């Protein structure tokens, strides 16, 4: 479901393959070139949140394969240790419930994947999810991020 040109919402049943297909269909795929290492700074920077989860952890290597620069925002960067792609991404610490921690992750980003949910957080998880999404949206707007891809639960 496309909410606007800026916000795209995916159902919880969406797969990484569907996301890859959507990127290609919307001409958001970067074609690898022989000088990619030198050209890397000109590649779009994509922010991925929720990278310790099932979809986020599988999306990051797909984005890297497609030639994107990837920045991962996590509450605890130690949780990314051992991931085969860890050295190929930027890692930024941030917490959706602490709005001041979001700005550094948003700088220079053209698109952001919001794959964060607090289902394990007790009976008021839905309120925390709403608050976190509002913080993220406000920070993205302030940073001038062009597109947010939101995975709904």
Q: How does this model look, in words?
A:
This protein is of the alpha/beta class and 153 residues long. It has five helices and six strands; from the N terminus they run E-H-H-E-H-E-E-H-E-H-E. A six-stranded parallel sheet has the order 1-6-5-2-3-4, sandwiched between helices. It is globular, with a radius of gyration of 15 Å.
Mean pLDDT: 81
**How do the SSEs run, as a string of H and E?**
EHHEHEEHEHE
Could you give the order of strands across the largest sheet?
A: 1-6-5-2-3-4
Supply Rg.
Answer: 15 Å
Summarize the main sheet: 6 strands, parallel
Structural class: alpha/beta
The end-to-end distance, rounded to whole angstroms, is 13 Å
What is the strand tally? 6
Instruction: List low-pLDDT spans.
Output: 1-8, 10-15, 29-38
Layout of strands and helices, then pairs:
Blueprint: E1 7-10, H1 16-25, H2 36-39, E2 45-49, H3 54-65, E3 69-74, E4 90-93, H4 103-106, E5 111-114, H5 125-143, E6 147-151
Parallel strand pairs: 1-6, 2-3, 2-5, 3-4, 5-6
What is the compact description of this entry?
The protein is an alpha/beta fold and 153 residues long. The protein has helices at residues 16-25, 36-39, 54-65, 103-106, 125-143, and strands spanning 7-10, 45-49, 69-74, 90-93, 111-114, 147-151. It is built from five helices and six strands, in the order βααβαββαβαβ.
């Amino acid at each position: 479901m496309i909410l606007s040109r800026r916000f795209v919402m995916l159902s919880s049943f969406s797969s990484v393959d569907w996301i890859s297909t959507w990127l290609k269909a919307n001409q958001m795929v970067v074609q690898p070139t022989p000088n990619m290492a030198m050209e890397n700074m000109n590649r779009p920077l994509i922010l991925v949140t929720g990278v310790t989860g099932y979809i986020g952890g599988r999306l990051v290597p797909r984005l890297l394969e497609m030639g994107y620069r990837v920045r991962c925002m996590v509450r605890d960067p130690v949780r990314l240790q051992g991931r085969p792609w860890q050295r190929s991404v930027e890692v930024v610490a941030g917490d959706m419930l602490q709005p001041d921690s979001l700005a550094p992750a948003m700088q220079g980003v053209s698109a952001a994947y919001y794959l964060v949910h607090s289902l394990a957080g007790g009976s008021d998880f839905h309120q925390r999810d709403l608050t976190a999404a509002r913080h993220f949206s406000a920070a993205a707007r302030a940073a001038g991020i062009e597109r947010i891809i939101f995975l709904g639960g």
